[in-house]
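Figure 6 in text form: structure in, sequence out.
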């Protein structure tokens, strides 16, 4: 994978002279946990141990919808080695909880609403004993017909006391009677993508002498997990402590209460440490997934291809419980027209409950689904007008100062045209006839079936956008403390390192601000002030901003005595390469000398400007910060077999400022690859609400053989003045954009409409050739 634009340029050293490694912002520092992961010493939750450890197992429903007539735990309790069995009757606190909406029970009590819903949990002295005991719990069900079609949820009997409709957003912008000379319509379906974490989902609960409990979890939102746990356990928040163990990467998937709450209940009941290590099947059954979505679109344009009006209906399948579906729907409706200027927009959005598995946070929630649809519409518009697909997009792209359909003005940098032109103009990869036959891969892999004569090449485009922070009035705040003693800096911030690079960024910020080489980031737990969830790259903004402010306060403490001594302001002093100098050269000393014998510290918060909920017409300043991306996909399609090979993905992205070039490139490449999975292979099938083949053979993740050449052709560094460092998050928007670009390329290769993700082989087959 190439990464021309993100390479750090360093001056060449003179002969015989060594160059010191760069540090601070803009340098490619290695990930803080890279060595531990390489050496196998990284503290994953699955590796934890405690004296007197018991093992947990959870009994889950085999039905997507059933009435519970009875639960008999007698046989399970009597099994040798079993120490405790808990059901809904053993939940001492709130029995119904949730992150967005409190509607999800800790254990099902009267009704089962989805396949895999927890009914009981067991603690035993051996993991096999725990699993056998869980299987020995006898549940008598009255099986009910599941509601699995979200369109049927409007007329079906209520699946939940709160009803089937979670939220409806009717967005109204402009003149409803406006029409265009050219109209294109489409119906699109987006499948259920699973986060599929490679690392095992696991946790350890340890009871405390004061009646509380400590939870050791690979949590991405430790304070949120603590609050849910305290409510379920009937404890005060200070009686529950969440300690974040090593997170083996996360795409907003490590937030499900079905693992954590039974674990803590068992520890409190037995008075012993209890560990749970989920199997792959339990992971698929237990955590939330991307919202499957049905989208209907109608685009109006004039004869020149300029958009006049967009009409859309968006239906999100939330599964059995609301979770964060309201947030996903807000993003889907607000970004339903994409990064294009649309004078008139009328969007109807719904999120409904069904008996399908629960949906929740997955990178680019809401935005990814609508991107696939509106980009398909732009391809249809180009075809109907006889225009190049890139050209019709360029005629409509938004820029800074344009207005979203929500009425919010885009005040951040929005270099969408520059991004699209960058990917459009980069040279295309060579055609197979220009390369040796042994270097050419047929669609399907190195040993792909089919004939070269049946292969068609297609080029497609995708433009995507995501918001970077919580929306609709969410209080986005983070707190950080920076302490310097004996020449070593320590950062305390509850921002979880999920693979997005926050720990490395915190080191860079302190190195840049204070000129201190050795910087340690304290492991995260809930004794620290909250920093919020690790999603949408928000920690780069709010937590990085808090670290920067705290570091600058320490810098002032460090420089004030020197400035006072020489009769000047601290603003006239600078720290560079570990040295403190004045503007006139009178003062020159090292940071080490200035710190001698001192302990300096400061605590600071970062809270972006507030937002507001969308009103009854879908209007409001609901978002802080928007990130944009353009991708050109090149694919080879076997039009007889329907197999697709992605040859190259050219990416241009507005990043505000490059803080760590190598890390940024890795995040973009990872996002593109996750989007590739959503486009071609990842589809968690749930016929009649039952998760089919919950394993990594039935659920096909893209491998290294599937990953195309990812060319980062341009990174636009136009700083967002309201963001710390001017940087934007980078991980989510490639996930949003890549599936749309791949589908566009397959349309170009085959002439087929391609209105479903992931793309099924039959959608890429061309008959009559």
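Output sequence:
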């Amino acid at each position: 994978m190439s990464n021309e634009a993100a390479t750090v340029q360093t001056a060449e050293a003179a002969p015989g002279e060594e160059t010191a490694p760069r540090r601070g912002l803009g340098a490619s520092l290695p990930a803080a946990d890279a060595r531990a992961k390489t050496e196998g010493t990284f503290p994953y939750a699955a590796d934890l141990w405690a004296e007197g450890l018991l093992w947990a197992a959870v009994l889950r429903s085999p039905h997507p919808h059933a009435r519970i007539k009875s639960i008999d735990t007698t046989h399970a309790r009597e099994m040798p080695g079993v120490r405790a069995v808990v059901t809904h009757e053993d939940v001492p606190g709130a029995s119904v909880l949730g992150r967005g909406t409190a509607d999800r029970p800790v254990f099902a009590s009267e009704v089962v609403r989805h396949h895999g819903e927890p009914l009981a949990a067991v603690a035993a002295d051996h993991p096999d004993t725990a699993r056998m005991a869980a299987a020995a719990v006898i549940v008598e069900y009255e099986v009910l017909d599941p509601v699995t079609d979200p369109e049927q949820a409007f007329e079906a009997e209520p699946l939940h006391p709160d009803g089937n409709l979670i939220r409806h957003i009717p967005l109204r912008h402009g003149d409803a009677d406006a029409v265009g000379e050219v109209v294109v319509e489409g119906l699109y379906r987006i499948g259920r993508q699973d986060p599929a974490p490679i690392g095992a989902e696991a946790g350890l609960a340890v009871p405390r002498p004061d009646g509380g409990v400590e939870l050791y979890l690979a949590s991405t939102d430790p304070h949120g997990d603590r609050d849910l746990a305290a409510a379920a356990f009937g404890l005060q928040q200070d009686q529950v402590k969440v300690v974040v163990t090593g997170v083996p990467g996360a795409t907003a998937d490590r937030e499900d209460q079905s693992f954590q709450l039974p674990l803590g209940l068992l520890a409190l009941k037995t008075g012993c440490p209890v560990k749970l290590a989920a199997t792959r099947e339990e992971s698929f059954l237990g955590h939330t997934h991307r919202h499957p979505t049905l989208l209907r679109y109608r685009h109006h344009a004039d004869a020149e291809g300029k958009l006049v009006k967009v009409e859309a209906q968006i239906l999100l399948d939330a599964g059995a419980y609301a979770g964060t579906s309201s947030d996903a729907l807000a993003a889907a409706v607000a970004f339903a027209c994409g990064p294009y200027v649309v004078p008139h927009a009328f969007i109807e959005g719904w999120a409904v409950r069904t008996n399908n598995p629960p949906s929740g946070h997955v990178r680019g929630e809401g935005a990814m689904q609508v991107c696939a649809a509106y980009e398909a519409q732009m391809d249809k518009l180009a075809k109907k007008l006889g225009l190049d697909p890139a050209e019709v997009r360029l005629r409509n792209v938004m820029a800074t100062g344009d207005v979203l359909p929500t009425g919010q003005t885009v005040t951040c940098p929005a270099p969408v045209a520059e991004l699209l032109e960058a990917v459009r103009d980069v040279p295309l990869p060579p055609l197979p006839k220009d390369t040796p036959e042994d270097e050419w891969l047929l669609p399907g892999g190195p040993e792909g079936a089919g004939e070269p004569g049946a292969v068609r090449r297609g080029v497609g485009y995708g433009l995507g956008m995501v918001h970077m922070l919580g929306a609709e009035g969410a209080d986005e705040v983070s707190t950080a403390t920076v302490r310097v003693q004996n020449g070593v800096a320590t950062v305390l911030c509850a921002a979880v390192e999920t693979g997005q690079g926050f720990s490395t960024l915190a080191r860079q910020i302190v190195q840049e601000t204070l000129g201190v080489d050795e910087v340690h980031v304290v492991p995260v737990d809930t004794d620290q002030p909250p920093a919020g969830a690790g999603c949408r790259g928000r920690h780069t903004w709010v937590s990085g901003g808090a670290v920067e402010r705290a570091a600058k306060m320490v810098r002032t403490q460090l420089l004030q005595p020197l400035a006072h001594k020489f009769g000047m302001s601290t603003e006239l002093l600078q720290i560079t390469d570990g040295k403190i100098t004045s503007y006139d050269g009178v003062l020159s000393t090292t940071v080490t000398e200035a710190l001698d014998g001192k302990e300096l510290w400061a605590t600071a918060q970062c809270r972006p400007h507030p937002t507001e909920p969308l009103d009854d017409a879908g209007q409001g300043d609901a978002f802080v910060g928007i990130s944009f991306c353009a991708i050109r996909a090149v694919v080879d399609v076997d039009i007889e077999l329907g197999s697709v090979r992605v040859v190259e993905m050219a990416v241009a992205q507005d990043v505000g400022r490059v803080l760590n070039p190598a890390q940024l490139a890795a995040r973009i490449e990872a996002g593109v690859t996750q989007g590739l999975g959503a486009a071609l292979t990842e589809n968690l099938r749930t016929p009649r609400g039952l998760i089919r083949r919950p394993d990594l053979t039935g659920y096909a993740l893209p491998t290294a053989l599937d990953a195309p050449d990812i060319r980062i052709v341009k990174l636009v560094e136009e700083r967002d003045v309201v963001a710390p460092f001017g940087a934007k998050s980078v991980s989510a928007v490639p996930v949003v954009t890549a599936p749309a670009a791949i589908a566009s390329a397959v349309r170009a290769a085959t002439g087929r409409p391609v209105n479903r993700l992931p793309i099924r082989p039959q959608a890429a087959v061309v008959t009559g050739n």
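Caption detail: The radius of gyration is 27 Å.
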